[in-house]
Amino acid sequence: MKKSLPKLGFPEPTHSEEILRHIVGIQVPIDLSKSHRESSGRMADAEIATGIVVSIFEQWFLISAGHLVNDLHRRHQLGDRILTCRLITLANSESDVPPIQFGLFDPESPTFLNADLIALAIDKDGLDCLVVPVTNGLRDLLELRGIQALHESTWRQPPTRPDIHYLAGVSSSLAQIDEETNAGQVTVGMRLIAPIVPIYPTNEPPAKLIKPIERLFFLLPKVSGHSDGKPRQFDHPGGMSGGPIIAACVTNENVMQLCLIGIQSSWDEGTRVIAATPWPLVVHVVEKMIEMWKNSFESIPTLSPTAISVELP
């Protein structure tokens, strides 16, 4: 029987929903400093990243890119003000679902993360991940919006010969940003669009993407698609940091099997090569965190990047 691959670019809903129900957009509205307002002509901006919700040892985690924390910290030091953090679910894109207000970042914290969440951000030597345990309250809010955790059974046995690879996540180039100012208060609204695009493995990454820790490399094509009935061009992965790299295999029965193999970290615009942190390394970090907790959320220690020694498996 001939295998039928899903359409490339912006896949049909039957294909995209299987992926999007595990993904959230991370939106961080920012009140720009005076100098940045003058140079940009805008009052506000927003950092955008992608998170994937997974289940490891039956505990839910929100995983994204660790460099997001460094980027926000840098902006804070330059005078920009971090307003809040929102989780925007994409599984029920047709319904008017409000974002989840999520206190992930704390500019006063040494790690720039809310210590109460026991989150961990690492961006060193090619290991780029943000790990946030999902509390019961946050899990309820995610489930109400159609989000389900990707179970670890879906990545324990990756296909030896995938038919295609995808990068999924929210796109800053396709986002629609609305800015309102009322009595000096800046409000940033945003509608996110989540393309799922084909990517192609490469063994020839540019030197700038090579790090001490081995990473995965893919070529990212320019892709045309439609959203809201309008033609759109996807040409760079801004906002997709932390987005899942998925190996897809179509069985002889035309059943699509998906396997998470990495999360998007960085890219080189000149060669259109993206670099991804291999998923087994992310899982290794999570397992180290769980070890330290001793399976008890009553006595979780305050973690920092130096609190975990990551030994490569």
What does the model show?
By secondary structure, this protein is α+β, with helices and mostly antiparallel strands. It has helices spanning about 15-20, 35-40, 65-75, 135-145, 280-295; strands at about 25-30, 45-55, 60-65, 80, 85-90, 100, 120-125, 125-135, 150, 165-170, 175-180, 185-190, 195-200, 215-220, 225, 230-235, 245-250, 255-270, 275-280. The strands form four sheets. Strands 1, 2, 3, 4, 5, 6, 7, 8 and 9 form a nine-stranded mixed beta sheet that branches. Strands 10-13-14-19-18-17 form a six-stranded antiparallel β-barrel. A two-stranded antiparallel sheet has the order 11-12. A hairpin with a 2-residue loop joins strand 2 and strand 3. The radius of gyration is 19 Å and the shape is globular.
| Major pleated sheet | 9 strands, mixed
Give the domain tally.
1
CATH class: Mainly Beta
Helix content: 10-25%
Morphology call = globular
Q: Can you tell me the residue ranges where pLDDT is under 50 for at least 5 consecutive residues?
A: 1-14, 299-313
Task: Return the average pLDDT rounded to an integer.
Answer: 79
Number of strands: 19
CATH topology: Thrombin, subunit H
What's the end-to-end separation, in Å?
39 Å
What's the helix-strand series? HEHEEHEEEEEHEEEEEEEEEEEH
Structural class: alpha+beta
| C-alpha-based Rg, rounded | 19 Å
Query: In the CATH hierarchy, what is the architecture at level 2?
Result: Beta Barrel
Strand content: 35-45%
Number of helices: 5
In short:
By secondary structure, the chain is of the alpha+beta class.
